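A note from the maintainers: we've had questions about how concatenated examples are separated. There is no special marker in the raw files; a new sequence line simply starts the next protein. For clarity in this README we add a label.
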Amino acid sequence: MLTVALPKGALLKDCIKLFQSVGLDFSAFLDSSNRQLQITDPTNTAQALLVRTHDVPVYVEYGQAQLGVAGYDVLREKNPKVAHLVDLGFGRCRMSVAVKESSPYQRAVELPAHGRVASKFVNCAREYFDSLDLPVEIVPLYGSVELGPITGMSEAIVDLVSTGRTLKENGLVEIEVLYESTARLIAHPLSYRLNSDNLDEIISQIRNTSLAAI
């Protein structure tokens, strides 16, 4: 039976609409009274796992799920051994460098050498500043990274930005965009090559599903 890893949180509703458009119904996950983390489609041809966003590529890489949906930001950060198949178009956001509004730094390259940058995307942040040939200390934070500059612990942050509202409300401004991120369909490489559980047909249907139809 085909197993799909779906992310909790902001991407879930669009993921469920996507799979409904190809005949798989995992909408039970949207029922607030449902506490199940694994459900089976009514057609009994596929099941879905509800996992944390950052865990989706792990379940796919290790073969517990043949398909999954993860943000490009997660894939860039974790660099899992999975097949990248389709840019799904939803969940659009950007990875950005931000500083306090009162900061004298207007570009990332202007940040002080050996200064501190707070981020939950440690690898992405380090890769970016390495590309600038700017040595900085990456401070790993997994809660509200905006507090880094606010408290003076860091000169800047690297974080996902969608509307920019959270930054504005906390007195921060973007000074650089590393890359744009959207939701991506990924697959377990071996399952994809072997066309396990009729993967090719499902992937083809998803490729042909326009965003307007979701």
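[label: protein 2]
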Amino acid sequence: GDPRWLRMAGLFYDNRVLDPLAQREDKLANFHANTQVPKLIGLARIHELTGDAAKGTAARFFWETVTQHHSYVIGGNADREYFTEPDTIADHITEQTCEHCNTYNMLKLTRHLWSWQPDGALFDYYERAHLNHVMAAQDPSTGGFTYMTPLMTGADRAYSTTKDDAFWCCVGSGMESHAKHGESIFWESGDGTFYVNLYIPADAAWAARKAAVTLETGYPFTPEATLTFTKLRTGTFPVALRVPRWAGGKVQVSVNGKPETPRIERGYAIVTRRWQAGDRIAITLPLDLRIEATPGNAQTVAILRGPLVLAADLGANEQKWERADPALVGGDVL
């Protein structure tokens, strides 16, 4: 509530980077990527505090531009820490793609934008980056973290060590990332809607309804997730389950084991009814294999199953890959 801090924020405003974004112009090429994302998180916060429309526009346009024109298939961005020209990802598949801190900050920005206007597309991106980049940034056997997640064939994924010579910035954001897996699963909106944005096994208390909820799922390996109101003050309200765009509308919803026809709106399957303790709502998503082209190059593709990006296992880091790259051959590679 002290205006001097708002004035100080104005001193940090970077005209060269931020003015074009406020005008919806993409001039990000050759800028250091992660240095920019916190500036837009700052603008998003100032927009929330002051209603400054230009700052909100800059934050939203930056997110749209980065996720649609500057991001790799796993949700990360930047080659050797820098943005390139839009839609040139296929020319920058190197051994130094996707710095983890960038994605950590992009997920922060995504949360701001969603709070302004719920939209499933925002969490389609969040889920992709969370599962394929954040979760992949830690070595479960040692606890070490990656700096980059290289997408070049045969490039090894290097992790930090317990020695003090490998404590890079992404170790810090990496530790924070793994304390945040639960922070975006459930949301509530001002109109009383209960949102499920991420299908991650979880228990939560919902204070507004004096409720306890449980989400059970094997997703993304199995297609179904079930939300149960284990405790609830009976009442009528909407429950919104995110339907990823890649599902192509092929979604099944049931309530207490009986098929339900939800209202589909802004990337959500919404069921409004009088809910009571013990009620269960389940969603089933198709986990079909599919091919996805790289922005700007239809000939460079990735193979995905549901939200997961698939990769060939070329063996341990200790064995340098020096053989011919594996290939999928045929009229229908899937």
